[in-house]
Write a structure and sequence with these properties.
Layout: H1 5-10, H2 29-41, E1 46-49, H3 61-75, E2 80-84, H4 91-103, E3 108-112, H5 123-136, E4 142-145, H6 157-166, E5 169-174, H7 179-189, E6 195-198, H8 204-210, E7 214-215, H9 219-222, H10 224-233, H11 239-255, H12 261-269, H13 289-305
Parallel strand pairs: 1-2, 2-3, 3-4, 4-5, 5-6, 6-7
Helix pairs in contact: 2-3, 4-5, 6-7, 10-11, 11-13
């Protein structure tokens, strides 16, 4: 069962999915099923796998396809699924990878903007490779992710407008951290199917009011219920909305140490998911009590506030 086109275009929260692993750092496929269910049970209807938080840079080519396929099958139409399909290879190879990810059922395949050329690549070379990929992938729905590692490449507004009007692009995870840049993209995409999701939690509700479509980031792995509520109620711009955004802004910054191991460790310790903290991300190791206790304190603080969301 596949998701509906409406689900792809109308949901507001796209968590960058964590990838559960065993202690030997192999993928825990049963854990992938559990975390997929956990997101959906929290009200999530859009899943972004093969993201940086999924440790995509440290998965094999085969594992990337397998992971996308597993999430699609487990979601079983309950949520739309997008997955990264470009990893810095020549355009012909990127085209084949995008087709592979699409063939296993992803609703859209995401292009890492910084993988369309090296850091010094000219805009002409960068956009030329993008055009080649778009032309070579038929009618497959596509997306952008302004991934911050190993360097960040922000999509220029003219290229963004071109992409929006191809009718092929439906997803954009924005990491410009620039309200002016995001406003230009919102204007460029107006009237098209290209949806803009802020990757910065500190300005999420403001960007939705300005015309963006929601949030895609790891705050949604810390408390998906709150993120679903925040994006659904952003236009209220009241104290309750501002309080939830402040809480999630602080929480997301706190989880940065040892991420994504820290997030996996927290979800297990708080009884939300049966997963291990292990990760392939360099430097991401389980936290000791000195660093970890503050995370469980944050969970307890949010619960104690009894926000009574309405």
């Amino acid at each position: 069962m596949t998701s509906t086109p409406e689900m792809l275009l109308t949901n507001q929260v796209w968590p960058v999915m964590l990838t559960p692993m065993h202690s030997d750092r192999t993928i825990d496929w049963d854990g992938v099923d559990r975390i997929t269910d956990w997101y959906i049970d929290a009200g999530i209807t859009g899943l972004f796998t093969n993201s940086r938080s999924s440790e995509v840079e440290f998965l094999s080519a085969e594992e990337r396809v397998q992971l996308a396929e597993r999430v699609v099958k487990r979601a079983n139409g309950r949520a739309a699924v997008v997955a990264t399909g470009t990893f810095g290879a020549p355009a012909a190879d990127e085209i084949e990878t995008i087709k592979q990810i699409s063939d296993v059922g992803a609703d859209a395949v995401v292009i890492l903007t910084n993988h369309l050329g090296n850091q010094a690549a000219s805009e002409a070379a960068w956009s030329g490779k993008l055009e080649t990929i778009v032309e070579g992938t038929g009618d497959i729905k596509l997306g952008f992710y302004e991934c911050p590692t190993p360097w960040k490449r922000v999509v220029p507004a003219p290229v963004f407008e071109w992409a929006a009007h191809t009718g092929r692009f439906v997803f954009h995870k924005d990491l410009s951290f620039d309200p002016g840049d995001m406003a230009a993209k919102i204007a460029a995409a107006r009237g098209t199917d290209l949806r803009i999701y802020n990757g910065e939690i500190t300005s999420t509700y403001q960007s939705i009011i300005a015309g963006a479509h929601g949030h895609s980031g790891y705050a949604s792995s810390l408390n998906p219920h709150l993120m679903v509520w925040l994006c659904a109620n952003a236009h209220r711009d009241d104290e309750q909305v501002r309080t939830v955004q402040r809480l999630m802004s602080v929480f997301e910054r706190m989880i940065g140490l040892g991420y994504p191991s820290s997030a996996k460790q927290l979800l297990a310790a708080t009884g939300q998911l049966d997963i291990t903290p292990y990760s392939r991300m360099p430097g991401a190791n389980p936290l000791g009590a000195h660093d970890f206790d503050s995370l469980t304190d944050m969970v307890a603080l949010i619960e104690s506030l009894d926000l009574k969301l309405n």
